[in-house]
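Mods, move this if it's the wrong board.
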Amino acid sequence: MTEEVPGPAEAVDSVLTALADPTRRRLLHLLAARGEVTATVLAEGLPVSRQAVVKHLAVLDAAGLVTARRAGRKVRYSVQPAALDATARWMSSLAADWDRRLARIKRLAEAAEQDPPPQP
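Not the wrong board. Structure tokens:
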């Protein structure tokens, strides 16, 4: 059975869902600052257990935000920025669409202000 590759919308949804949790955001921040580290090292700076960290890392991994690499008996995690980049591009595109819409509304409002009201 082949695994389906998520489309752009599903990938963005997965990233946003993963980043909705403050612990996962903190883990991503720690990984970005420290580079490749184990779940044990990450758990040392958090008020959650190593097992909870591993579960959070699995969610981040499923979203494409981190990758796991086995080194002997240890699993080392690192940040994968591609999923964040794709989500940032989507958000930027969305913002540009809204900017265009708001600029059009502004032009229409300014044009309406300049036109004299019709006389009854």
